[in-house]
Amino acid sequence: MTKNQMEEVPFLSNVGIMLTYKCTIACKHCIVKAGPNRKEEMTLESAYAWLDQIKAYRDGFVCGISLTGGEPFYNLQHLIKVADYSHKLGFITTVVSNAYWATSKQEALRIMSLCESIQMISISTDSSHQQFIPIEYVRNAIWAAKKLNKIYNVAVATESETSPEYLNIIDDVLEFVDREFINTSIILPVGRAEKQIDSSLFNYSSSPAVSACPMASFPIIFPNGNVIACIGPPITLPETNPLYLGNLNKESIATIFNRAEMNYILHAIRTFGPKVLVKLLKDNGYERLLPDRYIEDAICDVCFKLFSNKETCDVLHKLIDKDAKFRIQVEYGRLYHMNEAEMIKE
Prior knowledge:
It comes from Labilibaculum filiforme. By secondary structure, the protein is an alpha/beta fold. It is 38% helix and 14% strand.
């Protein structure tokens, strides 16, 4: 990631709100194990109250709200009410969906027209989704988004970017979307995928992924009030992991976000990538805590493997507390790469 790219994703500029665990389908790779039998849903009262707090934080510092699930369109009226309230507060409001509702161009246009406050939509499709939802529904949803001048992209998950199945899906999507509007993520054996995805499908490496993580800039709020630093696999881990930021039933947005500004592990991941945490452990004689292998080029896999072990989390906190040089590296790395001076002590 280049310096300019990193500057495009300022910390806390966007906040995710997971409206529901309900989904019309149950994909085998779903991290949160969403499905038709799940009941958890964020109440309107909680959504409105937390949106109010987000709006008040640092006089409107947060620009965007991303509504996700589960499947946010599962309860359409609920989605519309939350999106309308978010839009009324001045947020750029986006949504993630599997497009199950886009059964025809006309129906896709009808549904999306009801969601006037949603300015951008991300449609998920891959081999798991397509067991339930045909690619034509995705095409219809994108067609409707274009008709209504909404921003859009297509999100594709895969075990490997070299798999023929994945490449065929990309070819299908390229028939109606330019390549720049397709985002690919690597599936990890986490959540439902832990038991339902064949681990031999992954490409492995003895070295961790080298990239910094832009997704750690955008925390997500869950129906139970938990606030996690990103939407990746760490959302499945216990509260002892350093990417668990707090709970809104116990603390305010301001308290949680202000504490996150000084989370050295989080900002090391954002600035340099989790590889620096691997190096810190190695340099201090803790190689026994490191995994033997990592999924190739999967940043999330590094974080998940490190933070799954409470001892590793405790050791990292201890090492960073004692290592002024590491803390300065993170503080000034964040300033240089992202133009964020919040950790610099005057």
